[in-house]
Amino acid sequence: MAKLERSDSSTGDVFVKEEARDIAVSDQRLLDLGYRPEFRREMSLFGLLGISFCSIGILTGMSSAIQTGLFSGGPLGLFWGWNICSFFMFLIALSLAEICSTYPTMGGLYFWVCKMKPDVPILGFFTGWLYAVAMVFTGSSENLSIALYLASMVELGQGRTLTRVEITAIAWAVNIFSGIITSIGTKAIGRVSTFNVWWTLGGTVVLVITLLVKAPVKNSPEFVFTNFQNFTGWESKGFVVLLGFLQAVYTLEGCETAAQVAEEAVRAEILAPLGVVGSIAGSWLIGLAYLLALLFAVQDIASVQATTFALPVSQLFYDAVGPRLAQMCLFVPMLAQVMATITAFTASSRLFYALARDNAFPMKKQFMALNRYQAPYWGVWTSVLIGCIISCAYIGSAIAFNAIISSAAISVMLSYMQPIIIRVFWPDSIEDFGPFRLGKWSWPVNFASFSFCVFICVLFVLPTAYPVNALNMNYAIVAVGGLLVIITINWFWWGRHSFKGPVRTFK
């Protein structure tokens, strides 16, 4: 924050002047990057931290994907995989935060790549489109997850199984609700993010206490830290444990979301990178507490594997605390998931705005238009429309929908990798760093982050079950490949003629 000067004014006047100076500093930094400030700076550090924390969604990601680790390595793989992946995701957050501090603009990963490699515009174009699609797909998957939480709660409470059409209809309703909230603007999103932080902290405490107190049988530390389970069919224990890593990575993606609203934050060059790094650090610790509670309370992993509930974690809750409390346990992550969806659409709409501003997206005038709440509403409702269309895939085939969602997780990691690759192989691509710097640790951290991104992208496309057949095949590689083909065609058909890199709106 700017240093306070002596003033004869009241304390309130001093803080108003201080905030005005901070806004002027942030706006000047944006002007230096070539962009005229268009958004009101109403996002605080807590709001930035909250929006990344909300996007990560510890309770939601852990609850929705716990079965991946339980069936691929069991408690041993879950516990050690969580800590190993959290460490490397923290390194990725440090890498991204250093770049974010240098370029605190809307567009995040896309803009960073453009600025660091301006001579290769196709690289920035690919990163922007890939990341935009990943954000929309992520929001779509979160909407369906909310519907699956509700379906599980209905089955627990009423014994009725919802049809795929009913589940998809719920996902549509959540899509539209998310669009309405996102359209209200920065203040509303900031309040949602702030509430989510407290909801997650309080919800974690409630879930941990409920599971540890009510579970009829508490597992031993030996079970929690060393028990190995394998429902995959693969014989290699090492490979099976590695497959369990996917649960942790899927849960921890999203720390960079604070960068998407950097132009709406005071002193973004300081606060946005703190939001990126702080969200991972907090998620690591909170996720560990929740994970340990789940592992100490799980009654029968085979029962979870054979469940008929829409979400396998419902069976874990049911076995541990009974049907009534299980509904409460499901409600906690479900509400957090609603807020995470709003965050995902916030990120995608801001990215559409940034791409349109630089002629990397069609209909520039429309996608740069702001409503009276300072929200880029065309980007918001485009995200909602795509989310509704993708949700329909679940009616026809859960396998097809899962492939789309898996492609989103891979696309996020590929997007992370683009700016980090540049920092590894072209370390002098940044000359004037922001206030958040890694110093002598910059290259080692970036290299470790790059290596982990490559490792996870390969792991994400490998078959998760053996023998491989049409029903258990990992179709993520097909979905990602199709997405890359579409983006390539778009580049040669339209992008290379209109996109030359960031367009200065201020000279």
Continuous helix count: 19
Content of β-strand: under 5%
Terminal Cα span: 27 Å
Share of residues in helices: over 70%
Q: Label the overall shape.
A: globular
How would you characterize the largest beta sheet? Answer: none
Structural class: mainly alpha
| Strands, total number | 0
Rg, nearest Å: 22 Å
The residue ranges in which pLDDT falls below 50 over 5 or more consecutive positions are 1-9
User: How much is the average pLDDT?
Assistant: 85
Instruction: Encode the helix/strand succession as letters.
Output: HHHHHHHHHHHHHHHHHHH
Q: Could you characterize what this model shows?
A:
The protein contains 19 helices and no strands. The protein is an all-alpha fold and 507 residues long. Helix 6 (121-158) crosses helix 7 and helix 16 (377-396) packs across helix 17.
Concise summary:
With 507 residues, the chain is an all-alpha fold. The protein has helices spanning 11-32, 45-56, 58-71, 74-102, 109-116, 121-158, 164-183, 186-214, 221-226, 237-252, 257-260, 268-297, 301-305, 312-357, 364-367, 377-396, 398-425, 442-460, 476-498.
Question: How is the secondary structure organized here?
Answer:
Blueprint: H1 11-32, H2 45-56, H3 58-71, H4 74-102, H5 109-116, H6 121-158, H7 164-183, H8 186-214, H9 221-226, H10 237-252, H11 257-260, H12 268-297, H13 301-305, H14 312-357, H15 364-367, H16 377-396, H17 398-425, H18 442-460, H19 476-498
Helix pairs in contact: 2-8, 2-12, 2-14, 3-4, 3-10, 3-14, 4-10, 4-12, 4-18, 5-6, 5-17, 6-7, 6-14, 6-16, 6-17, 6-19, 7-14, 7-16, 8-12, 8-14, 14-16, 16-17, 17-18, 17-19
